[in-house]
Structures are given as C-alpha cells and as structure tokens.
Amino acid sequence: MSAVTSSDARPVILVVEDEPDERFLAAELLEETGFRVIEAETAERALAILNDRADEVSVVFSDVRTPGPIGGFELARIIGVTWPRVRVLLTSGDAGDQPSDLRVSATFIPKPWRAADILAWVEEAAGRPDGARPRPDVIGSPAGGA
C-alpha cells in the first residue's frame, strides 16, 4: 500500500480487491499513471478507510465479489448514500454479476478489463482531464451522470 500525504495533490483511488495479484496489478497501473492508491482487501476495510479519509478519495475501484458480509454492489450503494461525491467503478469476472444488479449510479466493467478502459474512466471520474484518451467502452454510466 502506498503512503498518502496531505501535501500530495494527486487524486486518490481506493482499490478494493481480495486477490493480491489483481489488487497489485490495478494499484501499479494507477500509480504509474500518476494516481495515489490506497488498497483494501475487503469492503469492510474500504468503508473504514472512507470513514477516516473520504475527503481524500476521488474514486473507489472494487471487485463485485469481496470476502465478508458486504460485496461490491452493497459497497457502491453505501458509498452513494454516504459519500455521493466519491465515484465508484465495479468489476467482476463472474458472468452472473450483471450491471442490472446496480441499485445506484456506478459503472460496471467486466473482467478481464483493459488497462486503457480503467485509466480513461478513472481519469475522468477523478476530474483529471486527458483529451488524448478516448472515453472507455463500458457498460453502465459513471456516478453523477457524466
């Protein structure tokens, strides 16, 4: 997990993934493109981080299937109600997880995802303009209707 300091103005992305290799891949991808990353293995840990640092977090990038009583869809609902300015991107490799399961405004990208799609969406969601990147071809719409 990367250290996050308050003097660093880069957008913060909270990555929620229980598979260490996938979490590492997502975190490395985002850090290499200039984001600060906080990692969590569970939705419960992500909520604890948001309780302490929601003012720093721009985007939550979460797997739908997380261990424990709270999954990604419920995490997105809680974030939408409690921290509506935080954007949510959900991903899943399970064909049973469908964007129609979303009860709140969030974006769903199926696994395996392409790095370019994740980066373009996160840059837009975090308010970091990048005219060189096309808008990702994803299912669903970002929170806030943008």
Describe this structure in a few short sentences.
The protein is an alpha/beta fold. About 30% of the residues lie in helices and about 20% in strands. Strand 3 (about 55-65), helix 3 (about 70-80) and strand 4 form a beta-alpha-beta unit.
Biggest sheet descriptor: 6 strands, mixed
Q: What overall form do the CA principal axes indicate?
A: globular
From the alpha carbons, calculate the radius of gyration and give it in angstroms. 14 Å
End-to-end separation in angstroms reads: 30 Å
Number of helices: 4
Mean of all residue-level pLDDT scores: 82
How many distinct beta strands? 6
Which structural class do the helices and strands define? alpha/beta
Which range does the strand content fall in?
Answer: 15-25%
Share in helix: 25-40%
Give the key terms.
4 helices, alpha/beta, 6 strands, six-stranded mixed β-sheet, disordered N terminus, 146 residues
Would you kindly provide a written description of the structure presented here, covering whatever features stand out?
The structure is a single chain. Strand 3 (about 55-65), helix 3 and strand 4 form a beta-alpha-beta unit. The protein has 4 helices and 6 strands, in the order βαβαβαββαβ. The longest helix is centred in the first third of the chain and has 13 residues, at about 20-30. By secondary structure, the chain is of the alpha/beta class. It has helices spanning about 20-30, 45-55, 70-80, 115-125; strands at about 10-15, 35-40, 55-65, 85-90, 105-110, 140. The chain is about 30% helix and about 20% strand. Strands 2-1-3-4-5-6 form a 6-stranded mixed sheet, with helices on both faces. About 40% of the residues are buried.
